[in-house]
Specification:
Length: 187
């Protein structure tokens, strides 16, 4: 799963630039490729039912953030990998990554980290130390990027934060706008 968020008044800017159109359908996030909602925190979130979707790649985030602040996350629980980052004025402000394949306590953080990051990292590092008994393989550092993004936007994929859990379903997307050729054409 991936998601990106902008402050709610700029949600139309985000949707137009990603070439997404709203449908009349609602769904739980993750039940459709693109779902979105205004959050109580004042941010609009677009949840994408695909890890590392093209919409959260640096080239797209650079373009989107030329006029708005953007927070983006990518989550792959099967390998305990998570990222969170913030972009502003076309540049990455900060990025946090946990890759469980590099070690249960792996964390990589760069940039001007947000207020509260150090406390979040300390909290999960302490939980990791306290659970290091025999047979314990819980990966607490996986939470660090996600909880940091949550502290700003008010959303975490396993803690909906949206009343009733209903998200609008969106169609389109920049990638779906590309012309496709018939299967029989080799040129």
């Amino acid at each position: 799963m991936s998601w990106l968020a902008v402050e709610a008044p700029t949600s139309e800017y985000l949707l137009q630039n990603l070439r997404l159109t709203s449908t009349t359908e609602t769904a739980m996030f993750g039940e459709s490729l693109f779902t979105g909602s205004n959050l109580p925190s004042g941010w609009f979130i677009l949840v994408i039912n695909q890890c590392e979707h093209e919409f959260i790649k640096p080239k797209v985030l650079e373009s989107l953030s030329s006029n708005v602040d953007v927070v983006a996350c990518s989550i792959e629980e099967h390998v305990m990998w998570s990222t969170a980052e913030m972009w502003r004025n076309g540049s990455r402000v900060w990025r946090i990554e946990h890759d469980g394949q590099k070690g249960i306590s792996h964390i990589s953080a760069s940039g001007l980290l947000p207020d509260g990051y150090q406390a979040i990292e300390r909290r999960f590092a302490e939980q990791q130390r306290n659970s290091s008994g025999v047979g314990s393989d819980t990966d607490y550092f996986f939470e660090v990027p996600l909880q940091t993004a949550r502290s700003i936007v008010g959303f975490k994929h396993d803690e909906s934060g949206v009343e009733g859990g209903s998200f609008l379903v969106f169609n389109g997307g920049a990638s779906s706008q590309m012309a496709t050729k018939p299967w029989w054409k080799f040129w």
